[in-house]
Amino acid sequence: MARLVTLDSSGASIAGPTATLIYDDWYPALRSKRLRSNSLQTAMLLDLPLVLGRRKDGRVFAMRDSCPHRGIPLSVGWFDGEHVTCRYHGWEFEPCSGQCATIPSLTSVGRLDATRIYATAYPCVEKDGYAWVYIPGAGAGRKLEVADLPPVPELAKYSDKYRSAHLTADLPCNVDHGIIGLMDPAHGPFVHQAWWWRSRGSIREKTKRFEPIPDGFRMAAHAPSGNSAPYKLLGVYGEPVETTIDFALPNRRYETIRCGSKWFTSLTTVTPVTASTCRIDVVAAWNVFYHVPLVTPIAKFFGAKFVRQDQVTMIQQAEGLRHNPSLMLIDDADKPAKWYFALKQARLDGGRSGEGKHPMDGPVELHWRS
Ligand code: FES
Ligand SMILES: [Fe+2]
Known about the structure:
370 residues, alpha+beta, eight-stranded antiparallel beta sheet, four-stranded antiparallel beta sheet, 5 helices, 19 strands, globular, binds FE2/S2 (inorganic) cluster, binds fe (ii) ion
């Protein structure tokens, strides 16, 4: 197996600068197609080891990968589609609630009621091909009612028929660097140089209008960069092309491109795996060129190339960040990054009710060359 980019040459997790993490929100743990009954999968989210699976009835679950008895990972135990059984002393747990069903060592004279014991289970929902897990903050108590939680993020689809694809890449930097790398407009001509996308020589001045949205900001509907090839392709439909890009806490970038009845949408998330590493996940859906053969593999190929270019750059950046240099954010190209840090601080200070502390007081135009 290829070495993980988030591990150093000795196999240890890269311990670059850490980021503060946002709890009490939904994060994608892994592709839900990997979850089948009778098997357990592991994932790490926000430094929490998780064990995930799918019950016989189809429901997905996520538990802390640690037996409440003596801490052995539950993932090394057994799963029969109904109960997770710990490999050490055989305690059995219902995985959606975490409730203990059986403690094999108990006798009829024992007084302990096994069903009063719980392993830690997290709200887990399958959507857009991911198992989304809600990670509560320390001391938040048990939260399992999905109806009481903020909605699970969802990719917009504008027709019944569409195609979709997923991409993922581990990044050896903390989630803040992953996110500001994602929203940074100025790296495009340098990192994503390619004949089919754009070249350095195509740099030109851009003016983009941004407006505040709850928990984030929107790059308002506009005709997309005339200097990038994929958008030119959409021109074949001969209708005006409009694109909107939203960023919303804690880590989501939604892109919507519409051209008459044709559309392309994507949801990109940058998820903290540990405090110093993260993972980028992209799910995209489209009905453009629906009937053209090979569009999905071609789109995946170019999408993967694009994500790989960001990944390679961030691997190089991690090398530099190891030595904790001081950094800077400049106007206007890094203004979205500044908004991100301010929004994040407001969330950390005031939770979701921290409304009113939005860093933008209205629409604003930013200018940069890219
Ligand atoms: S450690 Fe899990 S049952 Fe004892
Ligand atoms: Fe990029």
